[in-house]
Write a structure and sequence with these properties.
mainly alpha, elongated
Length: about 325
């Protein structure tokens, strides 16, 4: 399409979006559902216009203008998304699962990176147990697998479970924040912590205590590791966006990606809370190992059902929105 014709055709839409931005930016503005729906449609439409301009006329002043316009409209949409308890409930009902589905490739990459680290750590310690102190921090290097059969509860809560839970929360936050390093920091954290778990697993495996080791890790570990994978995927996504911003400016894409990734990190908070409750009230107890494996299986099933429900709910909402147009 000729640039002049393109500008003439779509300028009224841009002006309408700019006018609505001014209206919604006023203090105390309470838009109706129809106004929000129209504003969202305008935002998406102008975003596509911006992509066209960046592809064919990246240096034109219209591209600069639309870049600012889309950034403002996105900020308003983001702000309004969190303006009520109802919106927050909707996020955890379906929005979170939908975002996980959209970023599934990056979350899968996080899983793969940690798996690579796990196998590396496991193999290294399996071949040479004396290499453990060189691989793991001092607080892990002195673990005695034989204590599992002597005082399982004390070991689980004092040495293994609490240390790994605290470490995993820290890793999740750092994995997300390290996306700003082009994702390199995220890659390092995922691989290193995979090495840490793999090295410890090898120690217990050599001592014939693998069954007991995983019984104390998995009940809260299923949820904790899922949260770490999500945070790691969010960090990897940010790093990817910085390197491949597409037709938008790198700054604009970084801001939008950071906000989206922050939402993913927010979604992991309930996961860490649940994992903490399990770690505090189930992991250290004298329940049989079989019961602890049952708890781990239950957490996996419930997590899978939650994600399946969220995806189904988001698709249902999307179909309703399509039908209403």
């Amino acid at each position: 399409m000729d640039l002049t014709a393109f500008l003439k055709k779509h300028t009224p839409v841009w002006n309408e979006l700019e006018r609505r931005i001014g209206q919604l930016s006023r203090r105390g503005a309470k838009p109706t559902a129809e106004e929000i729906e129209r504003f969202t449609a305008l935002h998406k439409q102008v975003s596509s216009h911006l992509a066209f301009l960046y592809t064919h006329y990246p240096s034109h002043e219209a591209a600069v203008h639309l870049n600012k316009l889309v950034a403002k409209s996105h900020n308003l949409l983001y702000r309004d998304q969190w303006s009520s308890t109802e919106s927050l409930r909707a996020f955890f009902q379906s929005g979170f699962a939908s975002m996980l589905s959209a970023r599934a490739r990056f979350i899968a990459a996080a899983v793969l990176l940690m798996l690579v680290g796990f196998l590396s750590g496991f193999i290294a310690v399996w071949i040479d147990p004396l290499s453990l102190p060189a691989i793991v921090p001092p607080e892990y290097a002195g673990v005695d697998p034989n204590q599992l059969t002597e005082d399982r509860g004390e070991l689980a809560s004092g040495i293994i479970s609490t240390s790994i839970m605290t470490n995993n929360i820290r890793v999740a936050i750092l994995a997300f924040a390290s996306g700003i390093t082009l994702g390199l920091g995220t890659v390092y954290l995922l691989v290193y912590n995979g090495i840490l778990i793999g090295a410890l697993a090898a120690v217990f495996h050599r001592a014939g205590e693998s069954y007991a080791f995983w019984a104390y890790i998995l009940p809260h570990g299923v949820i904790e590791l899922t949260a770490i994978f999500i945070a790691g995927g969010a960090g990897l996504y940010m790093g990817y966006i910085i390197m491949v911003p597409g037709p938008f400016s790198r700054k604009f894409r970084l801001v939008t990606a950071a906000k989206e990734s922050a939402q993913l990190l927010l979604g992991t908070i309930p996961l860490f809370i649940i994992a903490g409750i399990i770690e505090g009230y189930i992991t250290p107890t004298q329940l049989s190992l079989e019961m602890k494996y049952a708890v781990a299986l239950l957490t996996f099933v419930l997590l899978a059902l939650y994600l399946a429900y969220g995806l189904r709910k988001s698709r249902y909402n999307a179909s309703l929105a399509f039908i209403s147009k």
